[in-house]
Amino acid sequence: MKRKIYKKFKNIPLVFDFQGSLTTELVDHNFLKEGSFIFKFVRKIEDSINRSADAIVVSSTNSANLLREESNIKKHKIFAVLDGVNVDEFKPHHETSDLKRKLNLPLNKKIVVYLGLLNKYQGIDCLLEAIGYLVKKNENVHFLIMGYPNVEKYKKIAVEKRINHNITFTGRIDYRKAPQYLSLGDLAVSPKISKTESNGKLYNYMAMGLPTVVFDTPVNREILGNSGVYAKLNDSVSLAEKLEMLLANGNLAKNLGKKLRERAVDGYSWQVVGKKL
Predict the structure, then answer these.
(1) Tens-digit pLDDT string for the chain (277 aa)
(2) Phi and psi at residue 26, to the nearest 5°
(3) Among 28, 56, 112, 217, which residue's CB has the most CB atoms within a 10 Å radius?
(4) d(Cα 246, Cα 138) in Å, to the nearest integer?
(5) How far apart are CA 265 and CA 239, in angstroms?
(6) Is residue 58 a contact partner of residue 81, using CB atoms and an 8 Å limit?
(7) Contact present, 58 and 196 (Cβ < 8 Å)
Protein backbone atom coordinates (compact mmCIF):
# COMPACT_ATOMS: atom_id res chain seq x y z
CA MET A 1 0.00 0.00 0.00
CA LYS A 2 2.84 2.40 0.88
CA ARG A 3 4.43 1.77 -2.51
CA LYS A 4 1.22 2.75 -4.32
CA ILE A 5 0.96 5.92 -2.21
CA TYR A 6 4.57 6.84 -3.00
CA LYS A 7 3.94 6.27 -6.69
CA LYS A 8 0.77 8.34 -6.71
CA PHE A 9 1.81 11.31 -4.59
CA LYS A 10 5.59 11.37 -4.82
CA ASN A 11 5.94 10.27 -8.43
CA ILE A 12 8.65 7.81 -7.42
CA PRO A 13 9.22 4.99 -9.95
CA LEU A 14 8.85 1.50 -8.53
CA VAL A 15 11.35 -1.14 -9.68
CA PHE A 16 10.45 -4.69 -8.66
CA ASP A 17 13.08 -7.45 -8.26
CA PHE A 18 11.15 -10.59 -9.29
CA GLN A 19 12.72 -13.85 -8.08
CA GLY A 20 9.84 -16.15 -8.97
CA SER A 21 6.10 -16.58 -8.61
CA LEU A 22 4.99 -16.77 -4.98
CA THR A 23 1.93 -18.85 -5.82
CA THR A 24 3.95 -21.25 -7.97
CA GLU A 25 6.46 -21.75 -5.18
CA LEU A 26 3.66 -22.33 -2.66
CA VAL A 27 2.28 -25.04 -4.95
CA ASP A 28 5.75 -26.56 -5.45
CA HIS A 29 6.22 -26.68 -1.67
CA ASN A 30 2.76 -28.23 -1.18
CA PHE A 31 1.34 -25.25 0.75
CA LEU A 32 -1.33 -24.57 -1.88
CA LYS A 33 -3.27 -26.68 -4.34
CA GLU A 34 -3.21 -25.29 -7.86
CA GLY A 35 -6.64 -24.09 -8.98
CA SER A 36 -8.06 -23.89 -5.45
CA PHE A 37 -9.94 -20.83 -4.19
CA ILE A 38 -7.02 -19.75 -1.99
CA PHE A 39 -4.60 -20.25 -4.89
CA LYS A 40 -6.71 -18.00 -7.15
CA PHE A 41 -7.03 -15.40 -4.40
CA VAL A 42 -3.27 -15.25 -3.71
CA ARG A 43 -2.49 -15.24 -7.44
CA LYS A 44 -4.82 -12.26 -7.93
CA ILE A 45 -3.00 -10.32 -5.21
CA GLU A 46 0.37 -11.30 -6.66
CA ASP A 47 -0.62 -10.19 -10.16
CA SER A 48 -1.84 -6.87 -8.79
CA ILE A 49 1.50 -6.26 -7.07
CA ASN A 50 3.39 -7.19 -10.23
CA ARG A 51 1.35 -4.81 -12.37
CA SER A 52 1.89 -1.92 -9.94
CA ALA A 53 5.61 -1.75 -10.78
CA ASP A 54 7.02 0.64 -13.37
CA ALA A 55 9.76 -1.86 -14.21
CA ILE A 56 10.45 -5.46 -13.22
CA VAL A 57 13.91 -7.02 -13.15
CA VAL A 58 13.95 -10.82 -13.48
CA SER A 59 16.82 -13.29 -13.22
CA SER A 60 15.81 -15.51 -16.15
CA THR A 61 14.00 -15.41 -19.47
CA ASN A 62 11.69 -18.06 -18.06
CA SER A 63 10.56 -15.63 -15.34
CA ALA A 64 10.02 -12.92 -17.96
CA ASN A 65 7.78 -15.27 -19.96
CA LEU A 66 5.91 -16.20 -16.79
CA LEU A 67 5.12 -12.56 -16.06
CA ARG A 68 3.92 -11.90 -19.60
CA GLU A 69 1.81 -15.04 -19.93
CA GLU A 70 0.35 -15.44 -16.42
CA SER A 71 0.32 -11.91 -15.02
CA ASN A 72 -0.27 -10.10 -18.32
CA ILE A 73 2.65 -7.70 -17.76
CA LYS A 74 3.62 -5.51 -20.70
CA LYS A 75 6.83 -6.63 -22.40
CA HIS A 76 8.47 -3.20 -22.20
CA LYS A 77 8.25 -3.28 -18.38
CA ILE A 78 10.28 -6.48 -18.00
CA PHE A 79 14.08 -6.61 -18.02
CA ALA A 80 15.88 -9.97 -17.84
CA VAL A 81 19.21 -9.59 -16.04
CA LEU A 82 20.72 -12.91 -15.00
CA ASP A 83 22.62 -13.22 -11.74
CA GLY A 84 26.39 -12.94 -11.61
CA VAL A 85 29.51 -14.09 -9.79
CA ASN A 86 32.79 -12.65 -8.57
CA VAL A 87 35.10 -14.38 -11.06
CA ASP A 88 38.18 -13.08 -9.24
CA GLU A 89 37.19 -14.88 -6.04
CA PHE A 90 35.57 -17.92 -7.60
CA LYS A 91 38.28 -19.33 -9.83
CA PRO A 92 40.13 -22.65 -10.23
CA HIS A 93 43.44 -23.70 -8.66
CA HIS A 94 42.98 -22.94 -4.97
CA GLU A 95 45.36 -24.80 -2.65
CA THR A 96 43.39 -27.71 -1.20
CA SER A 97 45.84 -30.24 0.29
CA ASP A 98 45.37 -29.09 3.90
CA LEU A 99 41.60 -28.94 3.52
CA LYS A 100 41.52 -32.44 2.03
CA ARG A 101 43.34 -33.76 5.07
CA LYS A 102 41.07 -31.81 7.41
CA LEU A 103 37.96 -33.32 5.81
CA ASN A 104 39.59 -36.74 5.49
CA LEU A 105 38.67 -36.96 1.82
CA PRO A 106 39.95 -39.96 -0.15
CA LEU A 107 42.97 -39.07 -2.28
CA ASN A 108 42.39 -41.80 -4.86
CA LYS A 109 38.79 -40.96 -5.78
CA LYS A 110 37.12 -38.29 -7.87
CA ILE A 111 35.14 -35.78 -5.84
CA VAL A 112 31.65 -34.57 -6.77
CA VAL A 113 30.69 -31.36 -4.94
CA TYR A 114 27.36 -29.85 -3.97
CA LEU A 115 27.05 -26.54 -2.12
CA GLY A 116 23.64 -25.21 -1.15
CA LEU A 117 20.57 -25.82 0.97
CA LEU A 118 19.83 -29.39 2.01
CA ASN A 119 16.16 -30.15 1.45
CA LYS A 120 13.85 -32.10 -0.82
CA TYR A 121 13.12 -29.06 -2.99
CA GLN A 122 16.82 -28.72 -3.80
CA GLY A 123 16.80 -32.37 -4.89
CA ILE A 124 18.92 -33.81 -2.09
CA ASP A 125 16.64 -36.83 -1.65
CA CYS A 126 16.96 -37.52 -5.37
CA LEU A 127 20.72 -37.01 -5.21
CA LEU A 128 21.09 -39.63 -2.47
CA GLU A 129 19.07 -42.05 -4.59
CA ALA A 130 21.40 -41.33 -7.52
CA ILE A 131 24.47 -41.90 -5.36
CA GLY A 132 23.08 -45.30 -4.40
CA TYR A 133 22.83 -46.27 -8.08
CA LEU A 134 26.18 -44.76 -9.01
CA VAL A 135 28.42 -46.33 -6.37
CA LYS A 136 27.23 -49.80 -7.36
CA LYS A 137 28.92 -49.22 -10.74
CA ASN A 138 31.73 -46.89 -9.77
CA GLU A 139 33.48 -47.15 -6.42
CA ASN A 140 36.05 -44.50 -7.35
CA VAL A 141 33.83 -41.54 -6.53
CA HIS A 142 33.14 -39.61 -3.34
CA PHE A 143 30.53 -36.91 -2.74
CA LEU A 144 31.22 -33.75 -0.77
CA ILE A 145 27.83 -32.34 0.24
CA MET A 146 28.14 -28.88 1.75
CA GLY A 147 25.35 -26.85 3.30
CA TYR A 148 22.44 -26.95 5.72
CA PRO A 149 19.85 -27.47 7.26
CA ASN A 150 18.77 -31.09 7.82
CA VAL A 151 22.36 -32.37 7.96
CA GLU A 152 21.61 -35.06 10.53
CA LYS A 153 18.49 -36.11 8.63
CA TYR A 154 20.46 -36.74 5.45
CA LYS A 155 23.32 -38.41 7.30
CA LYS A 156 20.75 -40.86 8.69
CA ILE A 157 19.30 -41.49 5.23
CA ALA A 158 22.81 -42.09 3.86
CA VAL A 159 23.41 -44.69 6.59
CA GLU A 160 20.08 -46.38 5.81
CA LYS A 161 21.04 -46.54 2.13
CA ARG A 162 24.53 -47.76 3.04
CA ILE A 163 26.18 -44.96 1.12
CA ASN A 164 27.47 -43.00 4.12
CA HIS A 165 31.05 -44.08 3.36
CA ASN A 166 30.71 -42.46 -0.06
CA ILE A 167 29.66 -39.07 1.30
CA THR A 168 31.18 -36.33 3.45
CA PHE A 169 28.70 -33.86 4.93
CA THR A 170 30.34 -30.62 6.04
CA GLY A 171 27.37 -28.70 7.34
CA ARG A 172 27.24 -24.95 6.89
CA ILE A 173 30.16 -23.38 5.00
CA ASP A 174 31.38 -19.80 5.40
CA TYR A 175 30.65 -18.19 2.02
CA ARG A 176 34.09 -16.57 2.05
CA LYS A 177 35.60 -20.06 2.08
CA ALA A 178 33.32 -21.42 -0.64
CA PRO A 179 35.90 -21.09 -3.47
CA GLN A 180 38.42 -23.20 -1.56
CA TYR A 181 35.85 -25.86 -0.73
CA LEU A 182 34.55 -25.99 -4.29
CA SER A 183 38.14 -26.40 -5.49
CA LEU A 184 38.08 -29.86 -3.93
CA GLY A 185 35.69 -31.03 -6.64
CA ASP A 186 36.36 -32.69 -9.97
CA LEU A 187 32.78 -31.98 -10.98
CA ALA A 188 29.65 -30.44 -9.47
CA VAL A 189 25.99 -31.34 -9.22
CA SER A 190 22.83 -29.30 -8.66
CA PRO A 191 19.71 -31.50 -8.55
CA LYS A 192 17.24 -28.67 -7.90
CA ILE A 193 13.80 -29.79 -9.06
CA SER A 194 12.10 -26.41 -9.61
CA LYS A 195 11.17 -25.57 -13.19
CA THR A 196 10.93 -21.83 -12.57
CA GLU A 197 13.24 -20.66 -9.75
CA SER A 198 16.71 -19.38 -10.50
CA ASN A 199 19.67 -21.59 -9.58
CA GLY A 200 22.30 -19.28 -8.16
CA LYS A 201 24.84 -21.93 -7.21
CA LEU A 202 25.47 -22.64 -10.89
CA TYR A 203 27.25 -19.32 -11.36
CA ASN A 204 29.77 -20.27 -8.69
CA TYR A 205 30.25 -23.73 -10.20
CA MET A 206 30.83 -22.18 -13.62
CA ALA A 207 33.36 -19.65 -12.37
CA MET A 208 35.26 -22.46 -10.66
CA GLY A 209 35.50 -24.30 -13.97
CA LEU A 210 33.56 -27.29 -12.64
CA PRO A 211 31.79 -29.51 -15.19
CA THR A 212 28.22 -29.55 -13.91
CA VAL A 213 25.32 -32.01 -13.95
CA VAL A 214 21.80 -30.61 -13.51
CA PHE A 215 18.22 -31.48 -14.32
CA ASP A 216 16.94 -30.37 -17.71
CA THR A 217 14.96 -27.17 -17.05
CA PRO A 218 14.71 -23.90 -19.00
CA VAL A 219 16.43 -22.01 -16.17
CA ASN A 220 19.40 -24.38 -16.04
CA ARG A 221 19.78 -24.39 -19.83
CA GLU A 222 19.76 -20.60 -19.96
CA ILE A 223 22.57 -20.43 -17.39
CA LEU A 224 24.80 -23.29 -18.55
CA GLY A 225 23.96 -23.33 -22.26
CA ASN A 226 25.49 -26.12 -24.33
CA SER A 227 28.20 -26.71 -21.74
CA GLY A 228 25.93 -28.22 -19.09
CA VAL A 229 25.15 -31.91 -18.68
CA TYR A 230 21.41 -32.49 -18.37
CA ALA A 231 19.52 -35.32 -16.68
CA LYS A 232 15.79 -35.97 -16.90
CA LEU A 233 13.92 -33.87 -14.36
CA ASN A 234 13.57 -35.51 -10.95
CA ASP A 235 14.97 -38.81 -12.29
CA SER A 236 17.62 -40.24 -9.97
CA VAL A 237 18.68 -42.95 -12.44
CA SER A 238 19.23 -40.41 -15.20
CA LEU A 239 21.17 -38.21 -12.76
CA ALA A 240 23.40 -41.15 -11.84
CA GLU A 241 23.99 -41.98 -15.50
CA LYS A 242 25.02 -38.42 -16.37
CA LEU A 243 27.40 -38.29 -13.42
CA GLU A 244 28.89 -41.63 -14.43
CA MET A 245 29.31 -40.41 -18.01
CA LEU A 246 31.33 -37.39 -16.88
CA LEU A 247 33.37 -39.40 -14.39
CA ALA A 248 34.30 -41.86 -17.13
CA ASN A 249 35.27 -39.18 -19.65
CA GLY A 250 37.98 -36.97 -18.22
CA ASN A 251 38.65 -35.12 -21.47
CA LEU A 252 34.98 -34.19 -21.87
CA ALA A 253 34.77 -33.05 -18.26
CA LYS A 254 37.90 -30.91 -18.62
CA ASN A 255 36.63 -29.33 -21.83
CA LEU A 256 33.20 -28.55 -20.36
CA GLY A 257 34.77 -27.06 -17.24
CA LYS A 258 36.96 -24.78 -19.35
CA LYS A 259 33.97 -23.62 -21.42
CA LEU A 260 31.91 -22.93 -18.31
CA ARG A 261 34.69 -20.83 -16.80
CA GLU A 262 34.89 -18.80 -20.02
CA ARG A 263 31.10 -18.43 -20.04
CA ALA A 264 31.15 -17.12 -16.48
CA VAL A 265 33.90 -14.58 -17.19
CA ASP A 266 32.41 -13.37 -20.47
CA GLY A 267 28.75 -13.31 -19.50
CA TYR A 268 28.22 -13.46 -15.75
CA SER A 269 30.98 -11.48 -14.04
CA TRP A 270 29.64 -8.69 -11.83
CA GLN A 271 31.19 -6.17 -14.21
CA VAL A 272 29.20 -7.55 -17.15
CA VAL A 273 25.96 -7.99 -15.19
CA GLY A 274 26.31 -4.53 -13.63
CA LYS A 275 26.48 -2.88 -17.06
CA LYS A 276 23.30 -4.68 -18.14
CA LEU A 277 21.48 -3.54 -15.03
Answers:
(1) 555 555 555 678 888 888 777 887 788 777 888 889 888 888 888 888 888 888 988 878 878 888 888 778 888 888 888 889 999 999 998 889 999 999 999 999 999 999 999 999 899 999 999 999 999 999 999 999 999 999 999 999 999 999 999 999 999 999 999 999 999 999 999 999 987 788 999 999 999 999 999 999 999 999 999 999 999 999 999 999 999 999 999 999 999 999 999 999 999 999 988 887 7
(2) -65, -35
(3) 112
(4) 12
(5) 27
(6) yes
(7) no
Domains observed in the chain: 2-80 (no CATH), 97-257 (3.40.50.2000)
Q: Are 81 and 57 in contact (CB under 8 A)?
A: yes
- Sheet of strand 55-58, all strands in order from the earlier edge strand to the far edge: 15-18, 55-58, 78-80
